[in-house]
Amino acid sequence: MKKSYILLFTFLITISLTKAQNTCSTPFPISSDASYTFTLSTNTVNNDSSNYYGCMPTHNNVTWIYFQVCQAGSVNLIAGGSSSSIDVDYIIYGPLSSSTQCGLDSTLVADCGIMNNSGNIMFNVSSVGSYYKMMIANFANTPGGITIYHSASVTAAIFDTTCACTLPPAAQPICQVTTDPAINRNIVSWEKDPAYLYDYTIQKETTTMGIYSTLATVANGDSSVYEDVLSNPMIQSFKYRILTTDSCAQFTSGPPHTTIHLLTSLSPGAGYPQLIWNPYAGFSYGTYFIYRGATPTTLSLYDSISSSFTSYTDVNPASGLMYYSVGVFPPSPCQPSRTSSMIALSNTASVIAIGIAESEPMGFTLSPNPARDVITLNFAIMQKEALVEIIDISGRSVLQEKHFNSTSVILNINNISNGYYLLKMTNKDGVSQNRIIVNK
């Protein structure tokens, strides 16, 4: 059963042409345990044109007030005029994020009506800590007063400036964290709770376990998708969480989500691409999905395995430089306020795979392999023009030379670091390639 709050306030204000009229952005505060006496405004024009007044026959001769709600329930305002000739209209806006919020549209109208001499204004509130505004318009432009009173027999639900919060706000969980391969950034997504009116604080775990630092504060009205421009998903996994707060500066942290960090290598001997990764943490799932492609932005679903395992060997690799990613789907679709990936993907990791056609390339032979200082290429036939490249596992060309009228070439690799590389020869007949290992 909802609680009912009966509020008593007596308003007394003298409006004249020499005194400033209160406005939507400068409302009068009211509190739970005090009475206020005002006279109705007359012969004044409401200049706040940014608000919705469609439910009111007039919106001049107005008085603006505000209060803050600290308990959900049914609010009951009992109002009465100083004489039988009083004829006023009223509109109540809420829930609002602050007492100065204006530009109020029709979706924020909690109640609206006409009151002749006396009336009973009732509306429900559910957003604890939020603000409500009431505008009273003297429709008849008749001098007089109006009283809104509060019964001392019930517990007050409103306070003038500071909400007496008793419980912290509900935790706002992350929906998922994914890596966008096109920009190599982690993307944090969450679904907005319509009852939550305050900002979202995005945090990331620091180099100390359990200690978080704030990346950004996202306004409630902004998109619920955040791009972490400070982190490189190629380096490590990252852990994120969302903090929510209320008007009393009480914080609640949602459950953290940990991204997948994927590492690739080649199996000894056979040279098959090997994948190993850490589990995604934040929601339950039963399957890992393996994606593969020739470029980071052309990945397609290649295979899937049980979430009981966190490693995979591609025994049927495509030849040359390949890219891999691992992903999991949340148990229910993520619906943030901006389009985002529907799968939580790892970073995109590359590896130079050695296919059957590469084992004995038709265009050349090379030695030694592994190599330390130099590599010798012997062409099957004289090359009138050939482009020779050495490419690292990230796809970057670390050596590039053109050779003319040659049957053999000696490549100096003193400036190339240890690791796996792809040696590619391009001539008029096409491309021939092989994997090399530099081991100094």
Explain what this protein looks like in three dimensions.
By secondary structure, the protein is mainly β. It has 1 helix and 31 strands. The chain has one helix at residues 356-359, and strands at residues 4-11, 28-29, 62-69, 73-81, 87-96, 109-116, 118-125, 131-138, 146-150, 158-159, 176-180, 185-189, 200-205, 212-218, 225-228, 239-245, 251-253, 257-258, 262-266, 273-277, 287-293, 300-306, 311-313, 320-328, 344-345, 349-353, 364-367, 374-391, 397-412, 419-427, 430-438. Strands 2, 3, 5, 6, 8 and 10 form a 6-stranded mixed β-sheet that branches. The longest helix is centred in the last third of the chain and has 4 residues, at 356-359. It is elongated, with a radius of gyration of 35 Å. The chain starts with a strand and ends with a strand.
Structural features:
single chain, 440 residues, mainly beta, Jelly Rolls, Immunoglobulin-like, 3 domains, six-stranded mixed β-sheet, five-stranded antiparallel β-sheet, 1 helix, 1% helix
Protein topology:
Layout: E1 4-11, E2 28-29, E3 62-69, E4 73-81, E5 87-96, E6 109-116, E7 118-125, E8 131-138, E9 146-150, E10 158-159, E11 176-180, E12 185-189, E13 200-205, E14 212-218, E15 225-228, E16 239-245, E17 251-253, E18 257-258, E19 262-266, E20 273-277, E21 287-293, E22 300-306, E23 311-313, E24 320-328, E25 344-345, E26 349-353, H1 356-359, E27 364-367, E28 374-391, E29 397-412, E30 419-427, E31 430-438
Parallel strand pairs: 1-4, 2-3
Antiparallel strand pairs: 1-9, 3-8, 3-10, 4-7, 4-9, 5-6, 5-8, 11-12, 12-15, 13-14, 13-16, 16-17, 16-18, 19-20, 20-23, 21-22, 21-24, 24-25, 24-26, 27-28, 28-29, 28-30, 30-31
